[in-house]
Queue: 2 jobs
Job 1
Amino acid sequence: MTTRKLSRLRIIKTFFFRVFIIISISSIAGIAFNLAYPRGLNPFTIKTSYNTDNLFTFIDLPAAREELDNGEAIFIDTRNKKEFNKAHIPGAINLPVSEFAKGKPKILEFLPEDTELILYCESAECKTALRVARLLKTYNFTELKIIKPGWNAWQEKAYPAEAEEGTKLP
């Protein structure tokens, strides 16, 4: 064989040897990781639930009603405008998630950041109040509470409600 062919052969052997070493080290690291973490890691999993108990206070209906009667808190209805217009907690402000699409909603400019805000959405399963609460946190609002049972439970209790002008209460 010529020197040129031997040189090429040596380069190819070196290349494949390095690939073999990299694959071997990666395999050993993978096995070690799986031994340490048997459940493994799924890079395609998106976390959709968060422990928010330490970030927000969840309140029940009697506590929310008491807050309404005291008149010191501002209620935030996070449902869409159509649902808000049908009926809502008296004095509530409509602030759906969509209002944050273009940045800070203008209504927030009129609310002091230390104002107690009580948010609610449709039901206990509804996550829009939680999403809006997270967004409000980014704008430094700190006194946030979420009515856990939501608007449907409020209506079932026949608690006070109001509707926009020209809209009949259910």
Job 2
Amino acid sequence: MGLKHAGYVLDVALLGLSAYLLSRGPLASDVLSRGPGVLATMADGAAYQTSAAAASLLSDPAHRKWFDFVLGDNLGHYATLNRDAARFTELDGWLNGWVLPAWVRAAVPHMVACFLRNLLAAYVMYYALNAVWCWVIYRACRDRFFPTEAAKKEIPSWDDMLVQISVSSWAMPMYSLMPTLGEWLMERGLTQAYLDLPADGAAGLARYLGGVAAYLFLVEWGIYWVRAGRVRVGSARVRARAPSWVAGSGGGCS
């Protein structure tokens, strides 16, 4: 079996594992046993205080309840069945406090604050790390990575870098939305996530280590080798068109 087919097998394995874990959750069990009508009660069963945003925007209590379930502090029915749901909410609030000023957190619903925290952190990481990268590659170690005059002509211009920065900056809100969605699901007790190691001793630790190993094999290690194999398949064609300096040269940063 080639690496391309191995990639498809990994995709199927990941989808199958995700479906299995989803089927073990309380929401999936209720839908399978009682029908999809239970989705209408997801926002019920949890005591919370109506947010100022919901009170100012909506007059119907039912609409306010769903508004706060989607964006605010209403964690819904399934959070009451998950011992870690409230702790995830506390953790997210603590993280928000490190990144956002108090007046921002008071002015927007909880999940909006989580999104803004992820977005701001993403922009800071993107610009800080890439600024260091560009300084090292194009200035401090310029002669190491671009040893000849012909190679130096391959250094991207400011216009090229600004185009890349613009594209990445526009994409950052969507990238930041994905971890926010994960936090939303965890706070509402809809995932298998937990904050502490299982309390059942060696068996729980073995399950935890097995899950980490499966993740590393299927995602980090597996996808890396699939990608590396695809690069090797086309390496001859790439090498024929690549500049001579791509193979690298000796020497340190100078």
